[in-house]
Design brief:
The structure is a homodimer of 121-residue chains.
Chain A lengths: L32 H14 L2 H11 L5 E3 H7 L4 H13 L3 E6 L2 E6 L1 H11 L1
Antiparallel strand pairs in A: 1-3, 2-3
Helix pairs in contact in A: 3-4
The structure holds a DNA duplex (30 and 30 nucleotides).
Amino acid sequence: MPTKTRPRVLADLPLATPTQACCAPGASEPMSRENAEDLAVLLKAVADPARLQLISLIRSSANCEACVCDLTDAMGLSQPTISHHLRVLTSAGVLSREQRGTWAWFTLNPKRLKEISRLLI
Amino acid sequence: MPTKTRPRVLADLPLATPTQACCAPGASEPMSRENAEDLAVLLKAVADPARLQLISLIRSSANCEACVCDLTDAMGLSQPTISHHLRVLTSAGVLSREQRGTWAWFTLNPKRLKEISRLLI
DNA sequence: TGTCTATATTGACAGACATCAATGTATTTG
DNA sequence: CAAATACATTGATGTCTGTCAATATAGACA
């Protein structure tokens, strides 16, 4: 069974709220350990060269989608390794998986990437 | 001697250029392994709960600056561990270090965080 | 049904990393 | 100079993780 887990949405707690200039007096509350751990899990999913390349490969493919075989050919890694990375990205909500016959097609979730990006600022 | 290394600036190669809608035909080139590794190093520096909390703590401090002792008190970790994390963040360009007498003060580099954030999108 | 193809899972292993205790270094202060 | 304080470095340890070979699963097709 393919991993379809949607990650729980992080509390709306970026490192600072966009409206505030850096260090307005009495600024934002420091991030809790729990929120920091959640965000770290998200960032770790993306902070890997192979996974960044996979994202980039899918993005530059037609329709922003690719199947595992294409990705395995393009990267210099074994098929199980590619499968592993795709699972990590899918669990993090960065990719979506769709089964078409024997093939598994993966597409980008741009919203998720933007969300991660936003939480950083 | 404190680590003052400025990381080399990543090539201007976000996962996709902002002007392009996702998957315009003949879109962006896939990211090279080398660029992916550089970006991964950057992201890994931030993808840690303790370091995210440190960033958040500094951001919510007066003047966006804090010394090691304050940070050590606020986090539940040993002083060498805090020192280690601060070094990682400084090496990644996310923090700047300034010596004032016995104290070492760390400040944020918001531009660097924005750069990381931009490369993700 | 049986074979082939595409993908997932398992198990193992090596390298990376977060953490701490102990120690070193440098600055301030008495 | 001596003691105390603030921070960095070293060395050790346990955990996490990226990778692959081997195997399992499942759909397509003859």
